[in-house]
Design a protein that fits this description.
There is one protein chain. The chain has helices at about 1-25, 30-55, 75-85, 85-90, 95-100, 115-135, 150-165, 165-195. With about 200 residues, the protein is mostly helical. Helix 1 runs antiparallel to helix 2 (about 30-55), helix 2 (about 30-55) packs parallel to helix 7 and helix 6 (about 115-135) runs antiparallel to helix 8.
Length: about 200
């Protein structure tokens, strides 16, 4: 359901951008070119996103250490997320983790130390993937007709950029809680191992 809503958002934005260009900004231009880039723009952006996601997931897992400084979330940052009511709207953002990596980031399915650490690594991958998706969309203006860049291509890029921001915020909001769960699970397992040894 959430993925459908996300896709509908993209479709509505793409149609609105195309319609504004066809009827108001470039009524004298070739409608074929406008429709072509009205469709091709989102398709190219989707392809760029997919390629970047594949590249990111090929990086070593050790780079996705949740204790690295770039993945550390301060209390002030968490407080900011609370003010944005992230817990209310985060479930409306689709999670494609189950499709791409086999691990859904919208539902924790275990409390074992190894599972939680793998979950944390995936939140780090997801954060970097969405940063990359947001930024690589700015490639599109360089391969598009110049006349369409201001009115059609840049709005497409901005939509793609904005749609990648909420997933980043969600990963960063969830990570401190996951870290606390992981550390608790780690201590519990260590105590159990000590008891077995005794």
């Amino acid at each position: 359901m959430h993925l459908k809503l996300y896709l509908w958002t993209i479709a509505v934005c793409a149609c609105a951008i195309l319609g504004i260009n066809v009827f108001f900004i470039h009524p004298e231009a070739s409608q074929f070119q406008l429709i072509l880039w009205g469709i091709m723009g989102p398709v190219i952006l989707f392809a760029l996103d997919a390629v970047f996601a594949i590249i990111m997931h090929s990086l070593p897992r050790k780079w996705m250490n949740p204790y690295r400084k770039c993945f550390t979330v301060s209390r002030k940052e968490v407080s900011l997320y609370r003010k944005t009511k992230i817990v209310v709207w985060k479930d409306y953002i689709p999670d494609t983790g189950k499709l791409t990596t086999g691990l859904s980031k919208s539902k924790i399915e275990g409390t074992q130390k190894d599972y939680l650490y793998a979950f944390l690594e995936e939140t780090c991958y997801a954060e970097w993937v969405h940063y990359g998706m947001a930024l690589c969309s700015f490639i599109l203006p360089f391969i598009s007709p110049r006349a369409l860049v201001p009115s059609m291509i840049m709005p497409q890029v901005i939509v793609n950029f904005l749609l990648n921001i909420p997933p980043i915020l969600i990963q960063r909001n969830n990570r401190p809680k996951l870290l606390a769960m992981y550390e608790h699970s780690k201590k519990t397992e260590e105590k159990q191992q000590e008891k077995v040894k005794q």
